Amino acid sequence: MEGRQGVMVEVPKGGLPQAAGNNPLVQLQTKFKEVEGRFREWLSKQSIPVEAAVVTSMSAAQGAVIGAFMGTLTSDVSSQLPPQSNLAPQAMASLNQAQALAVGPFAQARNFAVMTGANAGISCVMKRIRGVEDVQTSMVAAFGSGALFSLVSGMGGSNVAVNAVTSGIFFALVQGGIFKLGQKFSQPPTEDVFYAHTRDMLSGLGLQNYEKNFKKGLLTDRTLPLLTDSALRDVKIPPGPRLLILDHIQRDPELMKGRR
């Protein structure tokens, strides 16, 4: 395409790129995050009963949707279960549990609404009272949701109370294990803790590929104020990156304090 000054300007296929700020999807996501942030801020200022009621209701609604969907998948299973006559007591208990799970969409919606709502509500109250979200909070919430799920779903059979407690303990142990695994894999390795400032510095300079050189030479965060050209050369960092790193250290007042 020829411009006003006779210069050829090539327009990419599909027209000019649309600015990110004018993208309806980006604007919708941004607006949603703003509304969500304001809602969370408002909710955190409410009393414990109000927050628990709101959180429980919202989580129960989500659980009902999930349960209804699962109910459509398992509604045909109940028709394929064997008759209950002439079955041993243990087999009868297992059959009752299977029938409790193989119900229609409305019953499953109720079951999952109770389970997810109770879990979220108890967790909310525990966090507000104790001020922390830890494995104990997670396990208590899971116990309550498991026990209520057993009661409303009919999994308990004749031993309602015993099976409710058993289900609650099972849910608590599973949730506790999941919480611990999540903590283990979400936390960085112990080694990386000693290179947090180093990693930030290298990333800011665009030299993140040289983090392995620092680790190989055991140049931890504590050694940053002491770094010299020869030390960086010993870990095989090229001259250009060495100059950038040393210049950054000299310009950083916090790091320069370590040299005194």
UniProtKB/TrEMBL annotation:
A Pfam family:
Tim17
Q: Which InterPro entries match?
A: SAM, SAM/pointed_sf, TIM22
Q: Which residue numbers delimit the SAM domain?
A: 200-251
Subcellular location(s) of the protein = Plastid, Chloroplast inner membrane
Entry keyword Chloroplast = yes
The alphabetized UniProt keywords are:
Chloroplast, Membrane, Plastid, Plastid inner membrane, Protein transport, Transmembrane, Transmembrane helix, Transport
One GO MF term attached to the UniProt entry: protein transmembrane transporter activity
Q: Does the keyword Transcription apply?
A: no
> How does the protein associate with the membrane?
Multi-pass membrane protein
Q: Which Gene3D superfamilies does this UniProt record tie to the protein?
A: Transcription Factor, Ets-1
Gene Ontology process terms (BP): protein insertion into mitochondrial inner membrane; protein targeting to chloroplast; tRNA import into mitochondrion
List the record's Gene Ontology CC terms alphabetically.
chloroplast inner membrane; TIM22 mitochondrial import inner membrane insertion complex
Please give the subunit comment from the record: Probable component of a protein-conducting channel made of HP30-1, HP30-2 and HP20 that mediates the import of transit sequence-less proteins into the chloroplastic inner membrane. Interacts with CEQORH.
Per the record, the similarity remark reads: Belongs to the Tim17/Tim22/Tim23 family.
PANTHER family this protein is in? MITOCHONDRIAL IMPORT INNER MEMBRANE TRANSLOCASE SUBUNIT TIM22, OS04G0405100 PROTEIN
* Full protein name: SAM domain-containing protein
